[in-house]
Target: MEI1 protein
Amino acid sequence: LLFPVCNLCGKCRPRDTDLLQPSLNFLYWSLHQTTPCSQQRAVAVLLSNVSLLELLQKVLECTWLWSPPSRPASLSSEDALLCSGWLLVASLLLYQHRYNTEVHQTLSVDLTEVLNTVIFRNKKPILLLVSIMQFLRAVLRQNFSSSLLVIVGQNTAPSAAQPQPSSLQDTALHPLAMQQVFSLVVSLQNLLVHKDLLLSQAVVACLETLVEYLYVKNQDVALHVASQPWHRFLLFTLLSGGQKSFLQPEVLRLMTLFVRYQSSNIISQKEISQIIQEAAEANIAELPEATSHALHLFLSQV
Model:
């Protein structure tokens, strides 16, 4: 069934949202809901279809082109298609790397546009931000070196008209620049304050992957980012309101991040003791799966 659906997508235009959106969703779930053996074959089928990849390229580019002055409160059909496109591409990046699948057509993405979408948001729907962050996590994990993806942007192809990286730190973090990193971190912190569950999960995961990437590139920069004083204010903000427990998945994962990178100015021995005390008093069997998993990671890190 993958063959006719791929071929059908390849014959569509990005504006054919009613047909494309469920088709891309079908391809996405075909990758995620099959056996490992069939998964490898499914990835090969999708990546061998040049017309599908060309269509996905056009869909991704529509992210910067479709910007109506006022977006509806609910997810529009155009935004839903963009979500499906970014999620599918993120999955293809993941599985192409895992199985080292042959690539017949590359995708080109402007890194500056991707970062600016998260940094400035511009009234983008939450689900679209989450989808783009999934893509960003995928490229960070692969060190911007996927054979499926060509990264373009102001920091990726220095020329006579473009200044060289302005510092050794920019060179080490290439294709990211220090200013982009700090802007992205601040934006992720601000998005966490919205306390939307789906958004919070995506933001914390993106922050984890970003700091891991920075640590490999430049440990000093990673430790500096992880120890920003604003993180402590962010934790207090997340713990305010109705649910003050430390046993919230996003809070536990943030705490784990700060413990991992030894940010003692963000999380102290007192907070660690409070978390352990809350865990000791909780009924572990009744905790949600996400909370149990986050607690396990935290205690293992401690």
Remarks:
- Strands lie at 107-110, 149-152.
- Residues 158-163 have pLDDT under 50 and may be disordered.
- The chain is about 65% helix and 5% strand.
